[in-house]
Amino acid sequence: MHTPHIRTSRRTLLTLIGASLVAGAAPLIASQAATASPAGLDDPAKKEIAMKLVSSAENSSLDWKAQYKYIEDIGDGRGYTAGIIGFCSGTGDMLDLVELYGRRKPGNVLAKYLPALREVNGSDSHEGLDPGFPADWRRAAQDTAFQQAQNDERDRVYFNPAVQQGKADGIGTLGQFTYYDAIVMHGNGDDGTSFGSIRRRALSKAKPPAQGGDEVTYLNAFLDARVWAMKQEEAHSDTTRVDTEQRVFVRKRNLNLDTPLDWKVYGDSYHIG
Q: Is 202 exposed, middle or buried (0-12, 13-18, 19+ CB in 10 A)?
């Protein structure tokens, strides 16, 4: 692209920046960008990357928005797993989601299943849900109100706590993603393989940057703890979402999750340009 000559003696600084933006070559802006804090995982572009990374592991697809309608029992003892983040009928987050949808849209197609969802919470039972629940879930997933409810519950329960804790620990975008992926799989409860327990295990081995530690050293300790937690449960024993995804980014010291990104999960290759 041809860059027009700009006479600084006849332009204000504001005009200089505007012209440089149009021209696509801005040393001043580049300098400002270099000194600005990198975006966290809650930056919209980074969040979109996070959604794709999780979807590659959860759904073998980068098209995370196609997963609103997803539902199946994967045999992990949590009943039905469904939606963009794997809400489960046995762990309470699916119940919270359907209750939120009911408050926003009373009488929706899933409302009649609320008593059954309350009954099966904490188990892998389908009692009161079969045979119609999967088909009705897919019908509900066509409703933008249900899609937004999934987005909001994902953020409230998983995404926002991960980002907030990551920022408190002084870790960057990649580190915040490692927290998010761990909360998605293990939950944020009190059991020995929950996110909180994984983080405590990591803290016993290394200090995060907020405590004066090295970020890469701490992330490796966190991923070590994550792998340990995954191996405690047969359904999660394949650790490629750590080994051939997150560790790849850590080894490259891509702490800001800058594109392009290349990784593998379960042997499948993925790319974000």
A: buried
Q: Does the pLDDT value for residue 11 go beyond 60?
A: no
Catalytic residue status for 58: yes
- CA max distance for the chain: 77
Does 270 or 28 have the greater pLDDT score?
Answer: 270
Cα 214 to Cα 1, 117, 171, 173, 254: the distances in Å are 41, 44, 10, 15, 14
- 193: phi then psi, degrees, rounded to nearest 5: -115, 15
Indicate if 76 belongs to the active site. Answer: yes
At 65, is the secondary structure helix, strand, or coil? helix
The region of weakest confidence among 47-61, 154-168, 225-239 is 225-239
Third-level CATH fold of 44-272 = Chitosanase, subunit A; domain 1 (1.20.141)
Considering the candidates 42, 43, 48, 58, report the single residue annotated as catalytic. 58
How is 87-106 classified by DSSP, letter by letter?
A: EETTTSHHHHHHHHHHHHST
pLDDT in tens, 153-171: 999 999 999 999 999 999 9
Phi, psi of 261 (to 5 degrees): -120, 135
pTM: 0.84
For residue 219, give both structure tokens. 């992330």
Left (φ > 0), alpha (ψ -120 to 50) or beta: where does 82 sit?
beta
Q: In degrees, to the nearest 5, what angle opens at C-alpha 216 toward C-alphas 214 and 221?
A: 95
The pLDDT of residue 3 is above 70: no
**Of 76, 155, 258, 262, which residue is the catalytic one?**
76
